Amino acid sequence: MSGDRRGGGPPGNGDNPGGGWETIEKKKRPGAIDWFKGLQSLVTHARTKGSKRVKLHRELAALLEEEMSRRGSSVVPSGEQFGKWKGLRESTDREIVWPPMVIVMNTLLEKDEDDKWLGMGNQELLEYFSDYAATKARHAYGPGGHRGMSVLIFESSAVGYMEAERLHKHFIDQRTDRDTWQNRRVPFLPGGKRQLYGFLARKEDMETFNRHCQGKSRLKYEMRSHNEMVVAQMKQMSEDNQQLNYLKNKVVKTEQRSKVVEETLGVITQKLRETMEENIFVRSKAKEKHSEYEEEMKSQEKFFHDQIENIHKATEDKESEFERLLQEERAKARQCDVDSGTTENRRLRKEQVQRFIECQVKDVQEFEVERDELIKAHEEKKVQLKKEYMAKEVELEKEFDAALTGLMEKHRPGTFQASSSSP
């Protein structure tokens, strides 16, 4: 590797901080040479070489930097000379007239009897530019009357400024802007009509407008930051619009969910109403059936009760007949003639009557005892039968209650839960 000051190398000296170094050659291999445009290029190469002979290249870079420092040349760190760019200037802000205004020129009309100029009126100027949302119109006056200079005043907001700027661009597109007015104006069109010119108001325009105005007649304005009054408001409007769209979408989704819930609730309510009506109908039918069953049970009960009453009556009749027979036989025995015949015969007949009566009394006593026992046994059987019947009836009611409970569990309505909203 060798470094020479030559004049026959590749042309150019774009990065020659050393001043006297034009081209430098480096022998890459026998018969091959690399050329560098100045010492700085060689230093950069020596610093960034990353494949072969790295240590040797770094040592060369250190020696070259020391030489450049000794000679008073600046050493630009590697990566800084070629790795930086210059962007936009730091601030793009500017001062603007506030509230936003558009100057309209050539609004003169004619002179009056006093040789003073007349011009366009406020309402007339607003009507000429009705497509733009100007809120007020003013005209400049001087000693000679109307000065042919008017102003459209817009809303003190970013939207008002955008409207004023839109009108300003319309004048530019039509080539009736500030530059045309100042350099190559044509006050009159063919046919005699005046050509209006317009542009966004600047501070000097406002000073010109207020030149002959005093006190309250001066048009008030202030110079404000464009970024603060327009850019920041537009950003805020964009954010508000995004938030508004988000809220609108959220409201739409909420309304859709509410509509779905309302429709679902309507269907459920209708089904519930139908179910309640069906339940009322079923309960009504059940009550009718229950009444029918009660009537049938009463009828059956009356039927069996009548049968029992008939049996009781027949039993009583039998007992009465039995009692009548006993009394009749006893009366026969007592009416027997015991006084006729021999003494022995009378005695025998008396004994026979006595034995018959005693036998009958004894038999009646036995009958009454057995009858009481029979009645007692019968009553006990009736009590037992009633107990068994009541137990079976209770068991039947329990079975019905269990079956009805299971049926209600089977058809238990689900719990309604309203779905929650997500933002």
UniProtKB/TrEMBL annotation:
<dbReference type="GO" id="GO:0051607">
    <property type="term" value="P:defense response to virus"/>
</dbReference>
<feature type="region of interest" description="Disordered">
    <location>
        <begin position="1"/>
        <end position="25"/>
    </location>
</feature>
<feature type="domain" description="XS">
    <location>
        <begin position="93"/>
        <end position="207"/>
    </location>
</feature>
<protein>
    <recommendedName>
        <fullName>XS domain-containing protein</fullName>
    </recommendedName>
</protein>
<feature type="domain" description="Zinc finger-XS">
    <location>
        <begin position="33"/>
        <end position="61"/>
    </location>
</feature>
<keyword id="KW-0175">Coiled coil</keyword>
<comment type="similarity">
    <text>Belongs to the SGS3 family.</text>
</comment>
<dbReference type="InterPro" id="IPR005381">
    <property type="entry name" value="Znf-XS_domain"/>
</dbReference>
<feature type="coiled-coil region">
    <location>
        <begin position="283"/>
        <end position="328"/>
    </location>
</feature>
<feature type="compositionally biased region" description="Gly residues">
    <location>
        <begin position="8"/>
        <end position="21"/>
    </location>
</feature>
<feature type="coiled-coil region">
    <location>
        <begin position="364"/>
        <end position="395"/>
    </location>
</feature>
<keyword id="KW-0943">RNA-mediated gene silencing</keyword>
<dbReference type="InterPro" id="IPR005380">
    <property type="entry name" value="XS_domain"/>
</dbReference>
<dbReference type="GO" id="GO:0031047">
    <property type="term" value="P:regulatory ncRNA-mediated gene silencing"/>
</dbReference>
<dbReference type="Pfam" id="PF03470">
    <property type="entry name" value="zf-XS"/>
</dbReference>
<dbReference type="Pfam" id="PF03468">
    <property type="entry name" value="XS"/>
</dbReference>
<dbReference type="InterPro" id="IPR044287">
    <property type="entry name" value="SGS3"/>
</dbReference>
<dbReference type="InterPro" id="IPR038588">
    <property type="entry name" value="XS_domain_sf"/>
</dbReference>
